[in-house]
């Protein structure tokens, strides 16, 4: 069994757990806490399927905070397990829940990394390929843009598997400089367009 198939089976298993929880909630009425757990679990399963299928769902900003919520929940269950000494059945369920939550924490944290092609638009991915071609000669790329009182300059290099850029922006007599690094060229392209309004076509080999 390869890793991709294992992830798919894991996603199916979590989906079945969610379905069983929903049926139990509808059959027994449930509590507000159970409903909240079901909602959080549903979101986590959506993120799990997004990670497995390598598709972006709901934007990357929500998944790492959700991973944090699951981590806190797992920690609280482990604390309650150690502090209250529940019966064997309850202890087994609490430990199992904490373990499965820990798996989701790792997966959702990785899924929430914005430096991935799954969060890039089709245009950014195409521009990323063009940027890779331009950097194939190993020479740094530079770009400059001036619009009225605003000015931006960038320098882009590839170092190993990383794409690094240095940005200098000037506005109303003030200047700011910052560096950033990315593992996917499409993410770098989106970053440059957002913060400097420079496109791949504006980048040329450094003199």
Describe this structure in words.
- There is one protein chain.
- The protein has 207 residues and is an alpha+beta fold.
- The protein is built from 6 helices and 5 strands, in the order αααααββββαβ.
- It has helices spanning 3-28, 32-53, 63-84, 88-111, 122-134, 185-195; strands at 141-147, 150-159, 162-171, 174-182, 204-205.
- A 5-stranded antiparallel sheet has the order 4-3-2-1-5.
- Helix 1 (3-28) packs antiparallel against helix 2 (32-53), helix 2 packs across helix 3 (63-84) and helix 3 (63-84) runs antiparallel to helix 4 (88-111).
- The mean pLDDT is 86.
Summarize it.
With 207 residues, this protein is an alpha+beta fold. Helix content is 57%, strand content 18%. It has a 5-stranded antiparallel beta sheet with strand order 4-3-2-1-5.
The main sheet comes to: 5 strands, antiparallel
Strands in their spatial order, largest beta sheet = 4-3-2-1-5
Oligomeric nature of the chains: single chain
Summarize the amount of helix as a percent range. Answer: 55-70%
Tally of alpha and pi helices? 6
What structural class is derived from the secondary structure elements?
Answer: alpha+beta
Mean pLDDT reading: 86
